[in-house]
Amino acid sequence: MYNICSLIIFSLILSSSDAVNSHTFRAAVVDYEPIKTDKVTLESTLENAYVLAKYALEARWEDVDLLVFPEYGLTGMVQPDRNNATNTFAQDIPDPTLISWNPCDEPDLFPNTKVLQVVSCAAKYNAMVIAANLIGREPCNNTDADCPSDGQYFYNTNVMFYKNGTFAAKYHKKHLFMEPYINPSNKLDYTIIDIGFTKVACVICYDIVHREPIITLIKEKGVKNIIFSTAWINILPFITAPQLYTSIARGLGINLIAANHFAPNMSMMGSGIFTSGKGALNQTFDLSSPGKMIIADVPLNPEKINSGDLKCDDDSHYDHSEEFGAVHPPLMLVDPFTKTPYPSSQVTSKLNTFVNIRLTEFSFFYFDQNRMENHVDLCKGDFCCHLDYAFSNKDDTVYAFAVNDGVMQVEGDPYEVQVCAVMRCEREDASTCGQVPLVETKTTFKELSIEGTFDNNFVLPQMFGTDLQLIHGKDWNFKSVNCYDHDGSDITTGKVALTGPTEQPIMVASLLGLFD
């Protein structure tokens, strides 16, 4: 167990730091594997909190302004019995909007807050903002019609602390995923805090694929920096962790600071820092190194999504209210700081524990093996997508163009989506498309562009390689234009395209209209 006192002493010799410059701040995320235990206790939770404090000390040497820990990063993934084990480590978290409290300075002000005290001291003595995830407990009684039978709510909760250790915010997860002992937040939570150099908001894991709260935070509240603590299950072919992160950042015109739980046996790994226009500033998707801290300089104002030459259909009209991102010229970072060279990731052995989406409802077009280029229009009902492609090198690898307008099933949980996608396949069989490659391919694209008009105003783009790494952000671009149809409904035309020939074989390239 790490000694918090020694960490504090060492951190005191370091000078305080502000944001890197007036245009950026420095963020860090930890792709963390919690200390293994058969059951969750206060002691095991504190032990992970001391590890967080160790990372905070390391991050201070790198002048980090903001440190993010993953979902269940302090408690581990063990699902507790809420009548027993949970009560030993769940924290009684006060409302920071009603009181001003520094747990490090005032440890006795509230009972059952030892974990909060450790994180607060890590923030204070390392002069950085910290976001961590734990289980929060709140009592209730029979005046609350929704009060559980044991008289208490247990929430999956993110807590944030200012750089002086003051408790800044708490956020309860709204959309649970296989968490039977946790209560969902009973209200929509738009927790936004000003951390001095920018405003940030938190969402937790499954919240991010629902319209609320993230779309309101971005569209109506103007938040450009989202802290994302997650235990994300890697789901092929469209939403592995790196695919999700880059598509959210580039599709919504924001910075996404994502810390994932490292548990490859549960299909969980992959963390990073992503921005609109560039995608990954720094990221890891690496089986070999649990506990990796990823650091990058983040633009205070992410690039605005470019509409380029895209136009609304003849029967639709522009909706200028739906333009996301900064209203000033794009800020391009020059030689951004990264703790490790980009990309920082490698898959050192086959990761065969991906969860797979069933593609049986998709419309498929398999590429003609005798053609080096083609133009294809493909529809699913009234939803249509357009594809242009040209190969620079070609072997006998099978590629498919796939379109869906309906529901995808993930572990029994339905996603309503519209999808335009190009996928590598083992053969002309939908069940083999967009999966971990069994054999190496030498097929590469000279040109590739996918375009579609979606029945909402949020389209998520991504390109993912057969090496299970992102296609580098500079090698492709995304354009979108928001419109409204003749009946007043929101629609968006989106286009994802290579900027030139790529040497990296593509496994999946897609546009997703994901939000309900």
Question: Describe it for me?
Answer:
The two termini are 45 Å apart. This protein folds into 2 domains: 24-299, Carbon-nitrogen hydrolase (Nitrilase/N-carbamoyl-D-aminoacid amidohydrolase, 4-Layer Sandwich); 337-514, no CATH class. The chain has 516 residues and is mostly beta strands. It is elongated, with a radius of gyration of 23 Å. The strands form 5 sheets. Strands 1, 2, 3, 4, 5, 6 and 14 form a 7-stranded mixed β-sheet that branches. It has helices spanning 4-12, 42-61, 86-89, 114-126, 211-220, 241-252; strands at 24-31, 66-68, 91-92, 129-139, 152-161, 167-172, 192-194, 199-204, 225-230, 235-236, 255-260, 271-275, 279-284, 292-299, 316-318, 355-356, 363-366, 373-380, 383-393, 398-410, 413-425, 444-454, 460-465, 476-485, 490-498, 506-513. Helix 1 (4-12) packs parallel to helix 2 and helix 2 (42-61) runs parallel beside helix 4 (114-126). Helix content is 13%, strand content 35%. It contains 6 helices and 26 strands. Belongs to the carbon-nitrogen hydrolase superfamily. BTD/VNN family. This is CN hydrolase domain-containing protein. It comes from Strigamia maritima (European centipede). Keywords: Hydrolase, Signal.
Instruction: Give the helix proportion (percent range).
Output: 10-25%
CATH homologous superfamily designation of the largest domain? Carbon-nitrogen hydrolase
CATH class of the largest domain: Alpha Beta
Main sheet attributes: strand count, strand direction, barrel closure: 7 strands, mixed
Q: Ranges with pLDDT <50 over ≥5 residues?
A: 8-20, 314-344
The number of helical segments is: 6
Question: What share of residues are in beta strands?
Answer: 25-35%
CATH architecture of the largest domain: 4-Layer Sandwich
The CATH topology of the largest domain: Nitrilase/N-carbamoyl-D-aminoacid amidohydrolase
Structural class: mainly beta
Shape: elongated
> Got a strand count?
26
CA gyration radius, whole angstroms? 23 Å
Mean pLDDT: 86
Cα end-to-end separation = 45 Å
Overall tally of domains: 2
Keywords: Hydrolase, Signal
Family: Belongs to the carbon-nitrogen hydrolase superfamily. BTD/VNN family.
GO molecular function, one term: hydrolase activity
Protein name: CN hydrolase domain-containing protein
